[in-house]
UniProtKB/TrEMBL annotation:
The lineage of its organism: Bacteria, Pseudomonadati, Pseudomonadota, Alphaproteobacteria, Rhodospirillales. The gene is hisS. One of its GO terms (molecular function) is histidine-tRNA ligase activity. InterPro entries: aa-tRNA-synth_II, aa-tRNA-synth_II/BPL/LPL, Anticodon-bd, Anticodon-bd_dom_sf, His-tRNA-ligase, HisRS-like_core, HisRS/HisZ, HisRS_anticodon. Residues 29-329 form the Aminoacyl-transfer RNA synthetases class-II family profile domain. PROSITE patterns: AA_TRNA_LIGASE_II. It holds the Pfam family HGTP_anticodon. Keywords: Aminoacyl-tRNA synthetase, ATP-binding, Cytoplasm, Ligase, Nucleotide-binding, Protein biosynthesis. It is found in: Cytoplasm. Signal peptide: none annotated. Homodimer. Its EC number is 6.1.1.21. This is Histidine--tRNA ligase. It comes from the Bacteria.
């Protein structure tokens, strides 16, 4: 029955996949914490306005990818396609502009209606950070360094390249925009329909087009660096300088633009060739215009978002999980005593399993499958003496241990 399958582009996460997913989020949270970023959880849906206004009418996300619906109360709601707009909304809703800088880490599901393929789902997860209230390039450097620490700790940094570009300030973007309009207008007959639309509304976006014909034209388009004013050049120089100080390598990619409307100055992506076509694992930049665009006080911002599924795929390190202790009661009295013992061991911090049923051999086989470190075998005879047999499942060694000394004796398995 097809309704027993999850919705196209969504997945159930459990077992090894879940552990890897959890590891990515845990490491992201821990690293962000070290940089002084506290966690925020914003709602997974917001008023559609929040995204429409900020992401821009011409972005792929807004034009094609949003899950939008009307509620019973008549509100227009959208499942969040990304979390920066939500964090900015929360920043304003909670009056946080009084305590700058504001530094947040977030992790959770995002929703985009796009064609599912490897590394591209309709419900996927991002871990990200936002730094609000720092206008200096120091902020950009800190945010990128945070990304580097994160990727290093996941053990995937060596598989990635940091691509870097600048989108300049408003004046530079205006000059570049004019140059792009002049250039692409000569090729109106060759541009894709989407890009014709972008030419009117946001020509920068054409650079981000995935259409074959557009890409050919983009190859010869004017380059941003030729249109940067001195302020923007200097800002970018300081970002690069700060990265050099930290020994962070990067490659300048003059074609790199962020897909969303609110970015300025620094734009960056950590990309990998190890995942096929979906090669961007972490992407971000500066978004000084965002909070104001949403009706709040002018507040500079910089941040990034990473794809948790893509990072989990890239990560090769093994996730260590605690090996359980398995209690195997043989007999009715032992069953009863086993549940009390399991409770004690769990309070003492041991991952504890009960070998529920079957003969001793079967239960031991199951314990080995569960990768248990030790089995506590409780027969009625031993119980009468208030003891049990502890069997080391690696060496096979056995010894009889008094029940009240068990917690202590198991300490070697910690
Ligand atoms: P792409 O070019 O791959 O569509 P994007 O520019 O739309 O990426 P961002 O909005 O910058 O992506 O999101 C940041 C990160 O989130 C991406 O680099 C990627 O790792 C991840 N991501 C984005 N969309 C998806 C998706 N549909 N499925 C899985 N991960 C995704
Ligand atoms: Mg996309």
């Amino acid at each position: 029955m097809s309704s027993l399958q999850p919705v196209r582009g969504t997945h159930d996460l459990f077992g090894e996949d879940m552990r890897r997913h959890r590891e990515v989020l845990d490491i992201g949270r821990a690293v962000a914490n070290r940089f002084g970023y506290d966690e925020i959880i914003t709602p997974i849906f917001e008023k559609t306005e929040v995204f429409k206004r900020t992401l821009g009418d011409t972005s792929d996300v807004v034009t094609k990818e949003m899950y939008t619906f009307s509620t019973k109360g008549g509100d227009e709601i959208t499942l969040r396609p990304e979390n920066t707009a939500g964090v900015a909304r929360a920043f304003m809703s909670n009056g946080l502009s009084q305590q700058l800088p504001v530094k947040f880490f977030y992790g959770g599901p995002m929703f985009r209606h796009e064609r599912p393929q490897k590394g591209r789902q309709r419900q996927f997860h991002q871990a990200g950070v936002e730094l609000l209230g720092v206008e200096k390039p120091q902020g950009d450097v800190e945010i990128i360094a945070l990304g580097v620490h994160f990727l290093k700790e996941l053990g995937v940094y060596g598989d990635t390249v940091l691509e870097l570009n600048t989108l300049g300030d408003t004046e530079s973007r205006k000059a570049y925009r004019d140059a792009l309009v002049a250039y692409f207008s000569k090729f109106k007959d060759q541009l894709s329909e989407d890009s014709l639309d972008r030419l009117e509304k946001n020509p920068l976006r054409i650079l981000d087009s995935k259409n074959e014909r557009d890409r050919k034209l983009v190859a010869d388009a004017p380059i941003f660096s030729d249109y940067l004013n001195d302020f923007s050049k200097d800002f970018f120089a300081q970002v690069k300088d700060g990265l050099d100080d930290l020994g962070i390598a990067y490659e300048i990619n003059p074609r790199l633009v962020r897909g969303l409307d609110y970015y300025c100055h620094t734009a960056f992506e950590f990309t990998t060739t190890a995942l096929g076509a979906q090669g961007t694992v972490l992407a971000g930049g500066r978004y000084d215009g965002l909070v104001k665009m949403m009706g709040g006080p002018a507040t500079p911002g910089v941040g990034w978002a990473s794809g948790v599924e893509r990072l989990a795929m890239l990560m090769t390190r093994e996730i260590v999980i605690a090996k359980p202790v398995v209690i195997i009661p043989m007999g009715e009295a032992a069953d009863k005593r086993a549940s009390v013992l399991a409770d004690e061991l769990r309070y003492a911090g041991y991952r504890t399993e009960l070998g529920y049923s079957g003969n001793l051999k079967k239960r031991l086989i199951r314990a080995n499958k569960q990768n248990a470190c030790a089995a506590i075998i409780m027969g009625d005879d031993e119980l009468a003496e208030n003891s049990a047999t502890v069997r080391d499942l690696v060496s096979g060694d056995q010894s009889v241990v008094k029940l009240d000394e068990l917690v202590e004796k198991l300490a070697i398995y910690r």
